[in-house]
Design brief:
Length: about 70
């Protein structure tokens, strides 16, 4: 899927410089950034899910500790 990404001149230049330093294309750097973003948010959702499950499992203990 092709898309257009609008960046400020400053961001565009910084992205180009970063890609040059890493010997990668701007597209590769952007794709890596998107992959990292998605992985981080998937991990955050998993931690939240596990927290809710643990709170439910330990509800009576947590209630007693709160007294």
């Amino acid at each position: 899927m092709a898309m257009t990404l609008r960046l400020s001149d400053q961001r565009n230049e910084a992205l180009r410089r970063r890609a040059d330093k890493e010997g990668r294309s701007v597209e590769q750097v952007v794709n890596a950034a998107v992959d990292e973003y998605l992985a981080r948010h998937d991990a955050d959702e998993e931690v939240r899910r596990l927290g809710v499950a643990a709170a439910g499992r330990w509800r009576t203990v947590l209630d007693r500790l709160g007294e």
